[in-house]
Design a protein that fits this description.
This protein is an alpha+beta fold. The protein is built from 28 helices and 19 strands. The chain is about 50% helix and about 10% strand. Helix 18 packs antiparallel against helix 20.
Length: about 800
């Protein structure tokens, strides 16, 4: 590493090439496009939303709104859509699955480089610390787990860069304040509020008390720069959250996916908990009855002793060591969520954190810090006898645990936690786990050799074998960790799509049998997901994709221009009334009120796997679609058109179903409004509407009526809708609880609705101006051009 000590540019180039090579080795098939990631929300949210945004842009619409979900939901205001995040431009040049693969790998390498540079700085300038820390993060379980969580993965990549710039600000380096603002602004644009919040909580630990006041001007500059650069995201998002369920999440929702204490055994030992055949009660307790949020917490066997070594090295700043210890222990306690009290204390002290879900996310910045500390520990072993003693202690602790689990404790573990009736998985457990644990013992022996002889040729020998062994172990532990499918599977298009596609401007309602508990048993007489059938030639992952597309599960229909109605609020960002009515509609299924709600909302097609309770709908077709039950497609009688006129006005908030389903309410003659005048329907009224133009962010309607009337448009109400009647500004009103509308005079008129929130207009303008300012400052030398400024070999903050 001495060659790089005076050549920081060459060192960075070497690190990037090494990290990129390891990343390509881990994900070559995905990066080359032969297979594709698909799991979790990728299939049902990310890819459909990308498709919707691209379609809107091709039509000349601003990427502000997705018309395919629940009568239209926000794009720009939903940070996870990453509309203003520059790396998503990959989707302009590559197919969705390939663009996403490179998006993930670019952020993995970027984050690893950030961890490397933080480890170098905290170690006092060692490139060995950079190498070890960066590689540790690149192959860690938490990072591998984020591969299907696009915005969290992108946000995690920025965590070490924020910490690095924070250290530069505290050291009063030139241009550091603007650099910190630009980096944190970039993290906000990446779209994960969770990662941003946890980065702030982590970063404040690394600020020495004297620096809080000494650098107050720099903190204000950084905060102002970050907020201005990211205003295009957080301003619309704040407005959206205030009008959604996110602003008041119940504790049970917030603490779902809390980290179970038992998962701590996976941190440094290769025990793949998600692959073990746990008894049902233990699976429910550990994983909340489904797959964990972070599928792997394995960081590597050698990481624990290296962290202990770093904490014992007096050459490392006391602030760094104390902050690292508090950050790691505090992050773990917060991740425990409902299993400990730390999470409750944090959200009580900082109430805005209650808009965030899933405490286990706290393990992401915790893992970043652990990997940084491991890099520092690699240097500490070379220069500190006390650090070597701590490393030996860690080796003995882990080695003893691994040997105990390999021998006497393994049977006890299996009898207490595992389901012996699952013979296939139990056989794999007895066959593979002891070998993995013995492999860890071997790595600990190599680490002990390096701790004993940290320098010279023996040191190089042991360090090289240890590094290769760590990469090998991480590769095999995480091989096939994220579900992948052949690329061709993602292009599957159902043959019966024409029957499902609503005619004209209609919408599709799809029965959901999994998200709402008890529905599968109620309608199908079985529990949960029975799995795909008739696809035995495909693997389980590919079969799942095909069956979801065959049923056109929301929101996969966005690929084919299908607009949904009353789909579930997966992101908890629906307007409160829409969210309430979406749940309420499930309660009236099978009744005349259900049909009336479908008619009011312009739903013309219903997809289901059952027929009882559908007597008021007309069965159009029945098809076999890789489910135990056949697909039924029903036609809704006389649904309302996308735009229509009524003369009656009656006042109601529409916060429940009572007024909408009341016998006295006729949606063809009267509209429910929140305020303004009320009036009875006019007998003999005649009015027509014709949609002249409809795009994601606008809709133009030509109306003709013999009396003043109210124009209702079946697009979801959200802050930001504006309307003009014959070019003159008019008032947008909430119509029938969840739609938009406005008054129009008698005669012929042209009405134009546009979705352009002031928050978006102001926010995007600020983002653009801040980006120009930062670019200008960079060109003028206000921020450091060369990497040396970011790489000052200082161990202290």
């Amino acid at each position: 590493m001495s060659y790089f000590s005076e050549r920081p540019r060459a060192a960075i180039t070497a690190l990037v090439l090494l990290f990129a090579s390891v990343e390509f080795f881990f994900r070559s098939s995905i990066l080359l496009g032969t297979v594709a990631l698909y799991q979790r929300d990728l299939l049902l949210l990310y890819f459909p939303l990308v498709q919707s945004a691209l379609r809107g842009l091709s039509e000349g619409a601003l990427p502000l709104r997705d018309p395919s979900s629940a009568f239209g939901q926000p794009l720009l205001a939903d940070p996870s859509c990453q509309i203003l995040y520059p790396p998503v431009a990959l989707h302009f040049f590559l197919p969705p699955h390939l663009a996403y693969a490179w998006f993930v790998s670019i952020h993995s390498v970027f984050g690893a480089l950030g961890v490397a540079l933080v480890a170098r700085r905290f170690s006092g300038g060692s490139w060995l610390a950079a190498l070890v820390g960066g590689l540790a993060w690149l192959v860690s379980g938490p990072l591998q787990s984020l591969a299907t969580l696009w915005h969290h993965q992108a946000g995690a990549a920025w965590i070490p860069w924020v910490v690095l710039c924070l250290a530069r600000v505290a050291a009063k380096e030139g241009g550091a304040a603007l650099a910190l603002g630009a980096v944190f602004g970039g993290q906000i644009l990446a779209g994960s509020a969770d990662m941003c919040a946890m980065t702030i909580l982590l970063s404040v630990l690394f600020i020495a008390p004297r620096d809080y006041l000494r650098c107050w001007r720099d903190w204000l500059t950084s905060a102002g720069t970050a907020l201005a650069l990211s205003a295009g995201v957080w301003l619309p998002a704040a407005q959206l959250v205030l009008n959604s369920a996110r602003s008041a999440l119940p504790e049970a929702t917030r603490t779902y996916w809390s980290l179970h204490p038992l998962t701590a055994i996976e941190f440094f030992l290769p025990i793949p908990l998600t692959a073990l055949p746990f008894l049902s009660e233990w699976r429910t307790a550990i994983f909340e009855g489904r797959e964990p949020f972070l599928g792997s917490m394995f960081l590597g066997t050698a990481i624990f002793p290296l962290c202990l070594a770093a904490l014992a090295d007096a050459a490392v700043s006391r602030t760094v060591r104390l902050a690292s210890f508090l950050g790691i222990s505090g992050g773990f306690l917060i991740a425990l969520g409902k299993h400990a009290s730390a999470y409750a204390w944090v959200v009580a002290i900082i109430p805005p954190l209650r808009i965030l879900r899933f405490p286990s996310k706290a393990m992401v910045p915790t893992a970043v810090l652990i990997c940084v500390l491991a890099g520092v520990g690699a240097v500490a072993i070379r220069r500190s006898s006390r650090a070597r003693m701590n490393a030996f202690a860690g080796i003995l602790i882990l080695g003893g645990a691994a040997l105990a689990l390999t021998g006497p404790l393994l049977g006890g573990f299996a009898s207490v936690f595992l389901d012996g009736r699952d013979t296939l998985l139990m056989a794999a457990f007895w066959r593979s786990l002891p070998l993995h644990l013995l492999d860890s013992v071997g790595l600990l022996v190599l680490l002990a050799g390096w701790v004993r002889w940290p320098s010279g040729r023996p040191g190089i020998f042991f360090a090289t074998l240890l590094l290769l062994g760590h990469l090998r172990q991480s590769y095999y532990v995480h091989a096939n960790f994220n579900g992948i499918v052949p690329t061709a599977i993602l292009s599957y298009k159902p043959e019966h799509l024409a029957a499902l596609r609503p005619p004209g401007d209609g919408r599709l309602y799809v029965y959901d049998y999994q998200l709402f508990l008890g529905r599968a048993m109620k309608y199908l007489g079985r529990d949960g997901d029975a799995g795909p059938v008739g696809l035995e030639g495909l693997g389980p992952d590919a079969a799942s994709v095909v069956s979801s597309r065959a049923y056109v599960t929301p929101l996969v229909g966005a690929f084919w221009g299908i607009d949904y109605a009353w789909d579930a609020d997966l992101r908890l960002l629906f307007d409160r009334r829409l969210a309430s009515l979406t749940v309420g509609l499930r309660r009236v299924e099978g009744t005349p009120g259900f049909v009336k709600l479908l008619q009011i909302s312009g739903v013309s097609r219903v997809a289901a796997l059952h027929e009882p309770g559908m007597e008021d709908l007309r069965l159009l077709t029945r098809r076999k679609i890789f489910h135990p039950e056949d697909l039924r497609v029903f036609e809704v009688p006389e649904p309302l058109p996308r735009a229509f006129l009524t003369t009656g006005r009656t006042r109601s908030t529409g916060s429940d179903l009572a007024d909408l389903l009341g016998r006295g309410f006729d949606p063809t003659t009267t509209v429910l409004v929140e305020g303004g005048p009320i009036r009875p329907a006019v007998p003999g009224f005649a009015g027509t509407t014709r949609i002249l133009d409809r795009r994601a962010d606008r809709l133009t309607v030509e109306t003709s009526a013999n009396d003043p009337a109210f124009l209702t448009v079946l697009e979801g109400i959200m802050p930001g809708w504006r309307v003009w009647v014959d070019g003159k500004t008019a008032t947008v009103e909430r119509a029938n609880a969840v739609f938009i509308g406005t008054e129009v005079p008698a005669g012929q008129h042209r009405v134009e609705f546009r979705f352009l929130p002031t928050s978006a207009l102001v926010g995007v303008t600020l983002t653009f101006l801040a980006a120009l300012f930062l670019a200008y400052s960079w060109r003028r030398g206000s921020t450091d051009r060369a990497p040396e400024g970011m790489l000052a070999p200082q161990g202290n903050l």
